[in-house]
């Protein structure tokens, strides 16, 4: 169905056309005037980086047992990762695919551009301002990306939790991968990884992502609602410039920044709310760690609690008859969600548990097993939404009160008029 248009849409189109007519050779002139080194050139290496390992949070390093967790080793297409002696080594055969970053449950690999928060910001920034946002890889695109195209070393670097948060907020996300593009890729494990991660996110969200296989089908059109708001705000800023003699340019990039800042504030508020609910530290002063991808997923569930029924969440449970209270599980836990108190009580905070399986692996008596749990246990109430509803209820109650007062005053006034009318009638007699 065609999108409804009005006079404001026509003004926006005319202003854009006028700019092109006024300076039709602007792009050519800018490219000729620029220094050769300043002209952007497609280079796949610009979108790749070598992850930096963080052994202190790695469960295999903490347990001094390289078999505790081998997920990063399993997904590495070149066998570049070696864990031994409590340390992690990435050798020179690394092709910077980034799969180890998304595979590690304890987030023990760090990369500036492909961590959970950065990936969310990049994809959300493209999706917020355009009709469709495309996520693709360097091999598939092969050129400089447009504003709504997010290029990654491999699509498998995006965790399921990030996909879920993006999908429930933006319904117009697409994957761009030409048919057979993964068959000749050096990242031989990438296709299986991203298929599993996306399939899991689609199960959680209850719907699927679109797939584009032909480059001719890629579009780059800014959302009409975004253009309208930006145009109106630009007009308002133009009036301010006449008074202040300044030049504050309100661009789409600034509005994207405001949106992402709001998301960061939500994540910070969620962290504070969780700290208030379960405490920041255990009884042994170990600070509990809420990893970024879990925080992002909890933020999505906070806005859409009905999706908790779709989440396959597991948590460790301990058979106290078999437990010797050795503390091995407590020591190896990367988020410190497991706690053994001085009086012999074993507990786990499901909000912080990342299902790494390390506690189950290191338990000498096999007293720990993972069991399915209700994901609603990790859904925190949306305090902002609750406050908004309470405020609306108060305003509604106040309006009803004022309405009743107005009605009483009106009846009282009518009664007085009626008495006055009767009094005047008696005087006339």
UniProtKB/TrEMBL annotation:
Positions of the UniProt region annotated as Disordered: 383-414
Coiled coil, from the record: 253-280
Keywords tagged on the record: 4Fe-4S, Coiled coil, Iron, Iron-sulfur, Metal-binding
MF (Gene Ontology): 4 iron, 4 sulfur cluster binding; metal ion binding
Cited InterPro entries: 4Fe4S_Fe-S-bd, 4Fe4S_Fe_S_CS, PSI_iron-sulfur_center
Ranges where the 4Fe-4S ferredoxin-type domain occurs: 86-114, 314-343, 344-373
Domain of life where this protein originates: Bacteria
PANTHER family on file: PHOTOSYSTEM I IRON-SULFUR CENTER (PTHR24960:SF79), PHOTOSYSTEM I IRON-SULFUR CENTER-RELATED (PTHR24960)
Name of this protein: 4Fe-4S ferredoxin-type domain-containing protein
């Amino acid at each position: 169905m065609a999108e409804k248009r009005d006079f404001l849409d026509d003004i926006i189109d005319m202003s854009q056309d006028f700019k092109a007519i006024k300076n039709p050779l602007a792009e050519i002139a800018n490219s000729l005037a620029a220094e050769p080194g300043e002209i952007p050139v497609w280079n796949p290496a610009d979108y790749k980086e070598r992850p930096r390992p963080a052994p202190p949070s790695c469960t295999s390093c903490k347990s001094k047992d390289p078999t505790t967790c081998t997920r990063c080793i399993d997904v590495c297409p070149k066998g570049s990762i070696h864990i031994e002696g409590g340390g992690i080594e990435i050798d020179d055969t690394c092709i910077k695919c980034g799969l180890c970053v998304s595979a590690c449950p304890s987030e023990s690999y760090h990369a500036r551009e492909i961590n959970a928060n950065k990936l969310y910001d990049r994809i959300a920034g493209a999706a917020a301002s355009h009709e469709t946002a495309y996520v693709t890889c360097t091999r598939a695109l092969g050129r400089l990306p447009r504003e709504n195209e997010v290029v990654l070393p491999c699509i498998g670097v995006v965790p399921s939790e990030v996909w879920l948060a993006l999908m429930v907020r933006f319904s117009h996300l697409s994957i761009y991968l030409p048919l057979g593009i993964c068959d000749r890729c050096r990242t031989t494990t990438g296709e299986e990884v991203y298929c599993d991660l996306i399939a899991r996110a689609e199960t959680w969200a209850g719907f699927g992502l679109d797939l584009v296989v032909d480059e001719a089908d890629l579009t780059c059109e800014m959302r009409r609602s975004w253009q309208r708001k930006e145009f109106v705000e630009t007009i308002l800023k133009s009036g301010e410039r006449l008074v202040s003699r300044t030049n504050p340019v309100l661009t789409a990039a600034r509005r994207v920044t405001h949106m992402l800042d709001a998301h960061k504030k939500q994540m910070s508020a969620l962290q504070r709310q969780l700290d208030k609910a379960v405490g920041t530290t255990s009884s042994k002063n170990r600070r509990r760690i809420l990893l970024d991808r879990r925080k992002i997923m909890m933020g999505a569930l906070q806005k859409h609690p009905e999706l908790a029924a779709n989440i396959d969440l597991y948590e460790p449970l301990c058979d106290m008859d078999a437990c010797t209270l050795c503390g091995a599980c407590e020591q190896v836990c990367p988020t410190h969600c497991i706690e053994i108190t001085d009086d012999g009580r074993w507990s786990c905070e499901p909000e912080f548990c990342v299902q790494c399986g390390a506690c189950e692996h290191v338990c000498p008596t096999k007293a720990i097993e993972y069991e399915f749990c209700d994901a609603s246990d990790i859904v925190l109430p949306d305090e902002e939404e609750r406050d908004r509803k309470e405020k609306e209820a108060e305003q509604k109650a106040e309006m009803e009160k004022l309405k009743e007062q107005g009605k009483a005053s009106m009846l009282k006034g009518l009664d007085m008029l009626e008495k006055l009318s009767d009094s005047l009638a008696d005087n006339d007699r």
